[in-house]
Amino acid sequence: MREPPLSTLSGWGRHSAPGRERVGEDLERISADVNLSRGLGRSYGDASLPPDDEPNVLNTTFADRILGFDEVTGLFRAESGLALSELNRLLMPRGYFSPVSPGTKFVTLGGMVAADVHGKNQHKDGNFGDHVTKLKMRVGDGRVVECSPEQHPDLFRATIGGMGLTGHILEVEFGMHRIPSQWIWQESRRIQNIDEFQDALEESALEWPYTMGWIDCLARGKNMGRGILMTGRWAEADQAPSRAPKRGFQPTLRFDWPSWVLSGLTIRLFNELYYRKQWRRRSSGIVSHESFYYPLDAIRSWNRMYGRRGFTQYQCVLPREAGRSSARRVLDVLTTRGGASFLCVIKDFGRESRGILSFPRPGITLALDIAVRDDTQDLVDALNEQVLQEGGRIYLAKDSFTRREHFEAMEGPRLDEFRAIRDRWDPNRRFRSAQSVRLLGD
Amino acid sequence: MRVAFLGATKGMGRALARLMAERGDTICLLGRNSADLERSAADLSVRGAIPPVPSVACDLEKPDTFAPAIDAAREALEGLDAVVVTAAVFATQEELEADAALAERLVRINFSNTVMFCEAAKKALLEEGGGTLCVFSSVAGERGRKPVIIYGAAKAGLTRYLEGLDHKHRAEGLRVITVKPGFVKTSMTAGLEPPPFAGEPDGVAERVLSAIDRGAPVVYAPAPWRLIMAIIRALPRAIMRRISF
């Protein structure tokens, strides 16, 4: 096999590292001597990047065969490189949708397990890992094993949300959900401030399967946390257009925007206009699932908007126990430091996932897109210190700036449990990433 | 369409077989690794919402497997409308110069054995009263070029064979389609620096399927390679000696 050339690998936020990407259809054959799997590279930070001392990674995207689908039960099995976009294209017309979908469809099944992704239905259906029934893996000693809630449950729970650090995920089996149409009945509501937002999310959670909100995080004082709440449910066949949604024009950003484009002023302007767009207090209607789920996928390579230095997404969860005011305190850190987030998303979580290091817990999550500048490290440090005080934690799929001591303090006993399982399955720490070296020390 | 497919488990073959399955063609997979064939069969049957896709053993290194495999496919499909060959071996010029056994094997598989497979396929299709024989050759066979001397020579031979076959049998209803892919990003070319106009397997598959439906005898994919190769064919030797393309 030809040695792949040394190239620059990067996460979605354009954080990069030198690496060699090995590709191939037969993951079992080519995974034997590689120490990290990588899919479509949609994790924002350094989770899919190799550590400094070991540049080789496995790219799974050529391993994308469907291995079984039961149209009666919805049980589905495929190789881990299958993209969600392909799954949607094939099975939505037949009335099935992934039980959980993140905000982009350009992710692989393996990545969805490794990050234990959540979506707009987290409050109702939990995380993707909650629907996984079986995984086939190559583990540290070179064996290929299957794990499930019954078989090697420790490996199973550590792999869900384990960021690829327990082995190569070769195959994924999970249950698909039935959908009545490919259209969403969506309702949007204007929200005045962060407290109203949390009340509205809690209320909506009772009647809507899909909820999320967009926040204008430049608004301060009594307007802090104003924004738009979006709720949705699948349209019944008789409400929906009989045709399938059309794929519209999908532009691609072909060059890096200069960094001044996303300045404080343009971000303020965008956020103001976006808020004004929702000039009615409430509006509703039928929209395609694509525009509801994946609004950003409409522009390919939108990450180039942030210029060469890229961006980071700071996503944290604040536990219910921390109280309503915790979200305000975190946003305060952002605004008092003059940090401008182009896009800010809020969502409530209903329960923890079964993955040991999985992100969600009952409470509120905030996700802030922040262009990388000289002071980004200080900003993330300050946010992390606030989140620590609130008893919250961060989402590894987004992170590239958190310090090890902050992460260890946030995770506490969960990290001890994860390390114990890693000791059992990979005592020599074969499986490592740039992120694991940064946050776990190995 | 009932298709016997040699090479559907990987790369461009995988992409083409998927397009065929999704539009409802029935496919029989030919190949040497039965476990791998089973996985592709499952993939195609879910994609096409079609009954289990049959597979039969056939190894391009073993010419005695050709006729029995095609007969078995014909039986499984209850007839035969098309045979597609995407299977082949690839190695760089340096790899082939360094390893004479590999060079011999590549020339044998990509030229003589592929020709013998096509002879068996031709016979079966003519017995069916005609059909389509679609075979993947390469732009590497268009001109003697420094980076692909041995690989290109084998593909040049294959291209000429397919051209002659088309001339002889088109009137009898046998349509021979020669596919000439340029650089396509597959596991076969993994680790090589992609040139401008490198293609993706899905795009190639769409062009090939359209050529099969139209009966177009020659198809370049991705499209710009038709023009690129027209220029390369027109270059004088003095220039070919100087460039490294």
Helix and strand layout, with pairings?
The complex is a heterodimer of chains A (442) and B (245).
Chain A: E1 7-10, E2 16-23, H1 27-30, E3 37-38, E4 56-59, E5 66-69, E6 75-79, H2 84-91, E7 96-97, H3 109-114, H4 122-125, E8 132-138, E9 144-147, H5 153-159, E10 168-175, E11 177-178, E12 183-191, H6 194-207, E13 210-215, E14 227-234, H7 264-277, E15 282-288, H8 289-293, E16 311-319, H9 325-336, E17 344-349, E18 363-371, H10 376-390, E19 393-394, H11 404-411, H12 413-425, H13 434-440
Parallel strand pairs in A: 2-4, 3-4
Antiparallel strand pairs in A: 1-2, 5-6, 6-10, 7-11, 8-9, 8-10, 12-14, 12-15, 13-14, 13-17, 16-18, 16-19, 17-18
Chain B: E1 2-6, H1 11-22, E2 26-31, H2 34-48, E3 55-57, H3 66-77, E4 82-85, H4 93-98, H5 100-127, E5 131-136, H6 149-169, E6 174-181, H7 201-214, E7 218-221, H8 224-234, H9 237-242
Parallel strand pairs in B: 1-2, 1-4, 2-3, 4-5, 5-6, 6-7
Helix pairs in contact in B: 1-2, 1-7, 3-5, 5-6
Verbal overview:
The complex is a heterodimer of chains A (442) and B (245). Chain A has 13 helices and 19 strands. Chain A is of the alpha+beta class and 442 residues long. In chain A, the strands form four sheets. In chain A, strands 15-12-14-13-17-18-16-19 form an eight-stranded antiparallel β-sheet. Chain A is globular. Chain B has 245 residues and is an alpha/beta fold. Chain B has one domain: NAD(P)-binding Rossmann-like Domain (Rossmann fold, 3-Layer(aba) Sandwich), CATH 3.40.50. Chain B has helices at residues 11-22, 34-48, 66-77, 93-98, 100-127, 149-169, 201-214, 224-234, 237-242; strands at residues 2-6, 26-31, 55-57, 82-85, 131-136, 174-181, 218-221. In chain B, strand 5, helix 6 and strand 6 form a beta-alpha-beta unit. In chain B, helix 3 (66-77) packs across helix 5 (100-127). The longest helix of chain B is centred in the middle third of the chain and has 28 residues, at 100-127. The A-B interface holds A 1-5, 22-26, 62, 65-69, 79, 90, 94 and B 9-11, 14, 22, 36, 39-40, 42-43, 46-47, 49, 92, 186-187, 190-193.
